[in-house]
Amino acid sequence: MKALCLLTSTVALLASYSWADTPLDFAQDAEGSWTTVEQSSDPAYDWVESEMRRIWPDRDDGVWLYQENAIIGSNADNVLDGDPKSQPYFQVVVHVRDLGDGELHTTTYRLSDRAAAKGAYATGSFEDTWLGEIACMGHMRRIGVGFWSGEAVCPNSYKGGVKVVSRSVRSPNTSVNWDRGFDVDGNHIWGPAKGGYIFKRKSGEQE
User: Fold this and answer.
1) For residue 50, which of 80, 70, 74, 72 has the smallest C-alpha distance?
2) Which of 8, 23, 28, 159 has most Cβ atoms within 10 angstroms of its Cβ?
3) Strand-strand pairing, 103-111 and 63-75
4) What pLDDT, in 10s, does the model give residues 145-199?
């Protein structure tokens, strides 16, 4: 009976929840500093830090986010020399549009000037001339308040591949991202084989 009451309450909550600001809700859940330091105790995964910041808040064509990732080390005891955060390996802009009923369309852009954009997450200031070509399109859907699931399959020639398959699950304080590259014969040629990178929201940023 208790389980039934809990389920009924949850369904009622989701049914009454306003979806009008879905892209803004996603941005709020995605923004911040994220780290895989805990997972990097497994030698199959590097210690990666990811920064996500909303840009162009005055635009009315959806929500725009800037993402920058850097490898800090192979694990917490083996940090790269210098300032790893100043050498990001991944910089993109993500455009999020509302499709209704908790469904989002995502467009990921490469940058035309990665050097100029580096560190833009710290200020949120981003020049439109830094926006490059479209790299990928996909979908993200709300599966609960603060919880999201997404997927995309896009052309990608990295390491001789022909496509990248991306899967993601996001909760208020954890984000799992699993990108894998495949060749023309369907062989897996890059990306972790056994599961995605697990990013935890850095201490002090809990929603």
Assistant:
1) 70
2) 23
3) unpaired
4) 999 999 999 999 999 999 999 999 999 999 999 999 999 999 999 999 999 999 9
